[in-house]
Every structure is written in C-alpha cells, then in structure tokens.
Write a structure and sequence with these properties.
This protein is α/β, with parallel strands linked by helices. The protein folds into 2 domains: 153 residues, Immunoglobulin-like (Sandwich), CATH 2.60.40; 251 residues, Alpha/Beta hydrolase fold, catalytic domain (Rossmann fold). It is built from 7 helices and 21 strands. The strands form 6 sheets. A 6-stranded mixed beta sheet has the order 2-9-8-4-5-7. It is elongated. 42% of the residues are buried. Belongs to the C/M/P thioester hydrolase family. Keywords: Membrane, Transmembrane, Transmembrane helix. This is Acyl-CoA thioesterase 16.
Length: 415
Amino acid sequence: LGKWRVCLPKIMIGLSTMSDTVAPMLSVFPSRALVDENFKVVVENLPPGSPVTLHSLHQCEDKHYWEAYGHYISNHRGTVSVTDDLSFGGTYTGKEAMGLLWSMRPVPGSREGLRLRKRNVCSPLLVNISVYRGHVVEGFREQAPLASSLTERWYMAPGGPCFYLQVHYLKNYFLVFFSFCPGPFPGLLDVWGGGGGLVEYRSALLGSHGYASLALEYFAPGELKSSDLEFNYFETAFNIVKDHPQVMPDKVGIFGLSLGASLTLLLAAESSIIKVSDILFVLCVCAIKIGPLTHIGLFYKPTLKSFFLVISFKVGRINCPVMVVNSHDDQNMATVESSEDMMRAAGNLHLLTRLYYPDAGHLIEPPYTPHFRATKFVKDTKEKVILLWGGQTKPHSDAQEDSWKKILAFLEQNL
C-alpha cells in the first residue's frame, strides 16, 4: 500500500504528459447507419478536465450548411462520451446521445425559413463530427479541429434489404420504379402533405425496415387544387401496392402526414375498393380539422398562417386498426381532439391507438430529424410564405424518437 502511495503521483504525471503529446482521437460508431439508429461519439487522448466542443456539420443537397454543437469537459481519463457525459451548453444540453443531429440548425447568416429534407435517398446524409479545444460558440469553419470523423446516415439501407416504390404524378398516369430483394413484404402507401412533390425519404426508411412502401406524388409543389384530388387516384395507388407481386395482398396499410393523414382517414372510411377487413390503415398525423359528417368532401383553404382541412366521412365505417399522432403545440392546424371523440361515438374506439405530445409541432418526422418551427412554403398561388409549424426543439425531437419506435411496433404487431 505504501509503495502505491509513492508511485501514484508519477503515474498521474505520466498520463498528463501522454495527453499533451498524443493527438486526440475521435470515433463514431457505427460510422454507417440508418438515420433512425443511434450512434456513439467518443473523444480520447484529451488532457483530464479539458473543456472541449463537439460539433457536427452537414452540407445539404441545396448547398446550405447545418450545424449543432455541445460543450463538454473531459473526465479523469481524458475522455468525452456524448452518450454518457453532460453537455453544459450549445444547441443542446444534458445527456443527449443524438443531440449532434436533432439540434442541427442553419449556420449563422443562412437565409430564413430553411428546411432540411433528403431528396436523393440512394446517397447518404454525410455529417462531419469534430472536436475543438475550449467551449466554442461560433466560427467553427475558421479554425482547425483537434480531430474529425465523417459519418454516413442512410434512409435506404446500403447493401441491405430494401423495397420502396416511387410514383410520379404526370397528367393522370403513373410511372413506377422499384427496387427490392426477395419478398413478399407487407405493403404501405405513403401519403405526404400539402407541400406537394415526390417525398421519398420516409418510404425508403420504411423499406429498410422490411416494408414495400410506395411514395405517392399527387400534385406538384404549389399546384394543389380541389379538382385535382380525385378519389380514385388514391385507390389506384393503393391497388398498385396491394397487387404488386412482391407485396402480401392482405397486409397493406396507409401512412399519412398532415393533408395525407386526412386523405388516409377518408380512404379508410369511404373507399368502396379498400374493404379488406384485415388491411391496416396507419395514420401518422400532427393535426387535422374535421367538419360535419354529411358528405364526402375535401376543401383546401390556404391562408398566410395556417391550412384548414375540412373532411366529411363516416368514421363508423372504419373497421381496421388506426394510429393517430397528435401534437399539442401545432401552430399550423387545429389539434385532433376530435379523433378520439368521433371514434368513441361511432363505437370503434377500440381500434384507435393515440399518441399525444404536448410540446411538439406539426411536422412529426423520423427520429433525429432537425426541428423546424417555421419554414418557407409555396402556396397554390405560387407565392412563397413563411409557415409556422410550432413545437419546441427538445420536446419535438423526443416526440419524433418516441413516436417512430411506437409506429414501427404498431406496424410489426398489425402487419
């Protein structure tokens, strides 16, 4: 014991000397992963008790830069673990394993209203993670990091099982492209919201989880008109999924967001074609406003601050499991308190699974996607406006992570 008391100071001196002479090492594991998978970021070979900043940087396909950062202090071994250690400041605080992703924001000086969305799902989202000496708050690209590591985040699993379809809307006919491994698979029709265009990244991610997911484009950005939304268009898209040789015809669902969620409910309640009792309809919706149950109708009324959807249907006709995701801080539409009341009144409340998130906003996306409280939006008049979605960054990010796990569990249980 006395011997160790004498040697201990020498050992500590040796460690300090090594930290000063050996270059810091930053590792990300796994370096290639799906966007909904966790990673571990560790920095080693730092002097004990050193203040450092972990920083993430991504250049999106529009050439804009996005960043996040956290302030850490190395432990007695000269190590920082983003998973296990506290961030004392930055774009996130506390123990946040994925804070370097979900708290990303445009770098200072970027234009207003940016939104980060992946267009080419066949390529990864590249994120460069670096460590800097001290607690840095700006000018990251103007100084040299102590160490860096490039990580790949994929929507379509590279080299793994993936099946997703693309459907382009072109003057009332479809162009279908698909890639798949041997099946058959349960199928999903993926219907996005009022922004229009072909949005593929959620379908690609669902494909990476073993679902034949079809990304449906039903109007071009800024061109939505009520006359364009013909009911049989969506029934046709549903049948494309159901009748595909690599899809289980009795295991097909619909996944909707925003306007797409309203269309999903409309199809579940009113379609004369989609009447297979064991078909699942999945509804992932932030908010919809339900009108009188008198007739089928969809009316799209844009204003500067919000979009109001009025849907009339008979919820008593819904005879399949339904999941509804509600956001209390949705600043875009009225929240869906009505969904539970309507299904209870119709006698099919037992089919409803409802997720409720008090401080989340309208755009509930796959996990670790940056939060957007307000972004640019193209109206049907082609006018560009800033649309308020709502939500607080940390609670919204927690809602995305929690809801995605429960959505996948719901799909696995029912499909």
